[in-house]
Amino acid sequence: MRTVLFSKLVSKTDIESHLVIPDCPAGTLPSSDEGQSMEMHVLDNNGREWLFPCCITRNDLVGKFLNVGWIEFVRERDVRENDEVSIIHDEVDWKNQGAATTVLIKIEVRRKIRLFGKDIWADLK
Hints:
The longest helix is centred in the middle third of the chain and has 7 residues, at 71-77. With 125 residues, the chain is mainly beta. The chain has a 4-stranded antiparallel beta sheet, with no helix packed on it. The radius of gyration is 16 Å and the shape is globular. It contains 2 helices and 8 strands. The two termini are 23 Å apart.
């Protein structure tokens, strides 16, 4: 089963500093864990695994958010302002291969392009 946990248009801050994920894509971030560091393991569209360092942060304007270090990914994949980034929870059934169901976190980036006078969204590869 595939569930989009978070999706947004990429901002200048997201590209230059860190990806900001508000306090609710997969549930509420615990208030007692502010400053807690963790790592997010994600797979991109090409099957490459990425390790994003994360930290729960608080800002008076935004509130609590997950600060995701993804700059290497941004540079390598040429992510740009106004691209759309999605973090997806995907359960893969490996029963046919003799294993149990596995949970994967995937990252997808799409860019709006104009083709024959119409806007379409295309996956970045």
